[in-house]
Structure formats: C-alpha cells, structure tokens
Amino acid sequence: MINYVTGFMFSQDLLNVGLIKKLKPKWQNGLYNGIGGKVEHDESPYEAIAREFQEETGVETKPDEWKLYVTLTRPDIYRVYFLCMISDKVHNIRTTEEEIVKLLPCDALPKNVIHNLRWLIPLALDKSLAMTTPICIEEIKNP
C-alpha cells in the first residue's frame, strides 16, 4: 500500500488556505489540491507533511505543528493522511517547483479543485468538532 499526505495550512484568521495547482497525476492536472506527496518508508505522516510542505512552498514547519484529522484508505492500494495547521506562515508560501502554489480564500474556492476539498476544508475549520482521533474513511472496493 502506498501512503500519501495532503496538508492544508490556514491563515490565523481562517480566511485563507494554501493550495497547489496539480500537473500530476494526470487525473489531477489543472486542479487545486492540498500540498503533499508520498510518505517515505522511514518517516511518519507528520514528518512527511513537514518535508513536502517545505519542498513545495519554501515554508518550514515542524512535524508537531500539524494535526492529523482524516485518513482515507482504499484497502491494499493507498492511504491518504489529511493534516492541517493554522499559521500566518501561509502568507509566505511560494512556488518552488513546477506546480503553482497559491493562497486562496476558504469561502470562495475556485471551481477547479479536487472534489473532496469541498468537505475536507470546512471539516478542518469546524471549531465545533473536538476530535481526539482522526476520522477514518475506508473506500468501498468496486463490486
């Protein structure tokens, strides 16, 4: 199984989020997604998101600044760890690789976002939820 991380850094006022306009994989081309990538075999999801976030945005974070709030698993194929943090460091994000990084308003996401961001972002921002463990979602295998 391949493990991935996707991170959402929100501004302190919770109005903005840093997203990346994907080129790869092909099905994500032209769509905005959270920032992330593959988890290396010797690292935790927290270490992976700190590394990926710095590589893709130029902004340094510490693993313990991130909060894991959702895991999405397709059995035997992949698992995606969704993490978030609140920091005005998000105003310092910049494009460092081929894929464009942007600060976007949380309440007016563009039409070209990965579909699950429409519920993942509000879930991360919902102050009425006091989660002690992440929400775990297992995708149903095709019949």
Automatic annotation (TrEMBL):
Where's the Nudix hydrolase domain?
Answer: 1-126
Sorted keywords for this record are:
Hydrolase
The reply to whether Hydrolase figures as a keyword in the UniProt entry is yes
Top-rank taxon of the source lineage equals Bacteria
Listed cofactors = Mg(2+)
Membrane-spanning parts:
none
Q: Which residues form a coiled coil?
A: none
Task: Give one GO molecular function term.
Answer: hydrolase activity
The record's listing under InterPro entries reads: NUDIX_hydrolase-like_dom_sf, NUDIX_hydrolase_CS, NUDIX_hydrolase_dom
Q: Which Pfam families match?
A: NUDIX
Query: What is the protein named?
Result: Nudix hydrolase domain-containing protein
The organism encoding this protein is Vibrio cholerae
